[in-house]
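#structure-requests
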Amino acid sequence: RSVKEVWWDIRPHPTYGTIEFRMCDGIPTLREVRSIAALAQALVVWMDQQVDAGEPLPDIPSWVARENKWRASRFGLDGRVMTDVSGNTQSFKDNIVGIVDMLQPVAAGLGTLDALNGVREILETGSSAARQRAVVAQGGSLRDVVTLVREELAVELRS
């Protein structure tokens, strides 16, 4: 067995000296990929800065993390994230906005502020999954969903 065979959400890559993230599946537009990548990068840099400053990193019990992962998988951006062990919750959208706000200075220093702020646009316009479900809810077929995703990417490639 090797470390490559372990299915982690985040794992170090021993060959490249990098960190691998398990990210959202099916991000169909380059704009959205760029925004999610900027969010991940800024979060890692923020954590590194916290450690360097001797500050503690946020810590939650593993059961809360598992619960939030399930909630995100089940409800997407329309769900609520557990914010503590007492069961208090916050909408995922509000929670993500708070994280994006916190990461503004980091992203500015990285030159990725515009990309990070693209996360706000995703929250406002909805995820690709939400857009795809809307097509079906309006009577569309799988072919219509594929057309939507293809057209969204084509618009970006033309601009």
